[in-house]
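Sequence only, no structure available. Ideas?
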Amino acid sequence: MSDELETSLTISFMDVREIFPFIDPEQLNPNDVLEILLYVFQQTPGFVDRGHETNNRETAWVNGYLYRLRDNGMDGFVVDNIGSSVDKIAALREQQNG
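Reply:
I predicted one. Tokens follow.
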């Protein structure tokens, strides 16, 4: 599987509240976004976390790709891939081969 996820991933606000009772899905901070993204990705067959970092209240880096947790207006979030960093991907590969 590619490090970039190809499928449309979603999570409901209700699931966020159940899985992460300490997170308010309407008031996310950067750590919340990363926690939710990693949880969603871990539910995807073949996902391997090669490295991640917080970015802001909407986005986080996972495996060198920048993902946004977008409110879909239907009491949930959709995961959008909004870009990648060749430098981050190369650094992760170097650490892995290190």
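The helical segments are 13-19, 30-42, 86-97.
Hope that gets you unstuck.
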